[in-house]
């Protein structure tokens, strides 16, 4: 997107609670200060996260746990803190990448849209193994009242992606916070940090063939994982690597079994 702009050719269809139509002064501020951040984040999200499941293996007290996060295209505008009028959430990412001008841009009233944009350059660090998983927000009122379950904190401690668990979509990214705003970073000092040992991406092995009508079809051969990054500060021996692999394999078997149950219910 060369610059953020809106046509306002039509009456705005719907303004969600807590949002307003972008003002000219706000558009100028975004284009002067944050347009590169937005474009870089959109490219990163599209290439590395969109429609992917990222698995984080982390130390949980004295055990190893796995957090599996489903990054959908529809989650992207929530992290960015804006909406496009007359466009579905899952269309915003492609609109930005293809320089498509919306009828109206909707920003948050509480100005958190700008705080999010300030921190977007740290988003790529969410896939680095020296980032952290945070789970206990009982003493952080600002996060607790949002009813969110866990988060991924970037390794440079500039931003945090907050996660929500749902029966339909599993664990998904629900919001993004700039940790350099207000006293949030101080409040998080007492929240236990769970060290990430490895970051993986779920994958599906498929075979493509032509049916009797010469149309392309695909068969799923099963699920697999690809390693994105390993925390070599902690994973130093074959035994360490084997422990990591066992956690991922157990998750893989569980996910495969759940998929079978959905396809072939009793």
Describe the structure in your own words:
This protein has one domain (19-263). The chain is 29% helix and 32% strand. The chain contains eight helices and eleven strands. The strands form two sheets. Strands 2, 3, 6, 7, 8, 9, 10 and 11 form an eight-stranded antiparallel β-sheet that branches. A three-stranded antiparallel β-sheet has the order 1-5-4. A hairpin with a 5-residue loop joins strand 10 and strand 11. The longest helix has 26 residues, at 238-263. This is Phage-Barnase-EndoU-ColicinE5/D-RelE like nuclease 4 domain-containing protein. InterPro entries: PBECR4. Residues 38-218 form the Phage-Barnase-EndoU-ColicinE5/D-RelE like nuclease domain. It holds the Pfam family PBECR4.
Concise structural overview:
This is Phage-Barnase-EndoU-ColicinE5/D-RelE like nuclease 4 domain-containing protein. Helices cover 29% and strands 32% of the residues.
Strand proportion, as a percent range, falls in 25-35%
Q: Could you give a short account of the major beta sheet? A: 8 strands, antiparallel
How much helix, percentage-wise, in residues? 25-40%
What is the N-to-C succession of helices and strands? EHHEEHEHEHEHEEEHEEH
Low-pLDDT runs of 5+ residues are none
State mean pLDDT (0 to 100 scale).
89
Global Rg: 20 Å
Instruction: Please tally the helical runs, counting DSSP H or I stretches of 4 or more residues.
Output: 8
* Assembly type: single chain
Distance separating the two termini: 49 Å
Q: How many independent structural domains?
A: 1
* Quantity of strands, as a count: 11
Computed structural class: alpha+beta
Q: In one word, what is the shape?
A: globular
Domain Phage-Barnase-EndoU-ColicinE5/D-RelE like nuclease: 38-218
InterPro entries: PBECR4 (IPR041420)
Organism: Lactobacillus amylovorus subsp. animalium
Protein name: Phage-Barnase-EndoU-ColicinE5/D-RelE like nuclease 4 domain-containing protein
């Amino acid at each position: 997107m060369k610059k953020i702009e809106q046509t306002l050719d039509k009456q705005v269809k719907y303004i969600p609670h807590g949002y307003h139509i972008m003002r000219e002064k706000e558009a100028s501020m975004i284009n002067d200060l944050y347009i590169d951040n937005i474009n870089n984040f959109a490219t990163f999200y599209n290439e590395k996260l969109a429609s992917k499941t990222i698995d984080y293996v982390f130390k949980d007290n004295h055990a190893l746990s796995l957090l599996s996060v489903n990054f959908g295209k529809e989650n992207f505008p929530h992290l960015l803190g804006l909406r496009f009028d007359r466009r579905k959430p899952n269309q915003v990412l492609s609109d930005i990448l293809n320089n498509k001008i919306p009828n109206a841009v909707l920003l948050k009233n509480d100005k958190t849209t700008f705080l999010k944009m300030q921190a977007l350059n740290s988003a790529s660090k969410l896939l680095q193994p020296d980032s952290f998983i945070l789970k206990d927000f009982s003493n952080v009122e600002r996060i607790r009242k949002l009813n969110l379950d866990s988060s991924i904190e970037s390794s440079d401690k500039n931003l945090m992606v907050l996660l929500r668990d749902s029966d339909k979509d599993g664990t998904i990214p629900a919001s993004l916070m700039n940790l350099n705003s207000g006293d949030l970073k101080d409040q998080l000092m007492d929240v236990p940090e769970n060290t990430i040992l490895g970051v993986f991406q779920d994958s599906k092995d498929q075979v493509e063939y032509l049916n009797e009508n010469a149309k392309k079809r695909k068969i799923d051969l099963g699920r697999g994982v690809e390693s994105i990054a390993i925390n070599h500060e902690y994973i130093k021996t074959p035994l360490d690597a084997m422990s990591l692999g066992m956690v991922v394999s157990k998750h893989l078997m569980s996910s495969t079994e759940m998929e079978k149950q959905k396809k072939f219910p009793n």
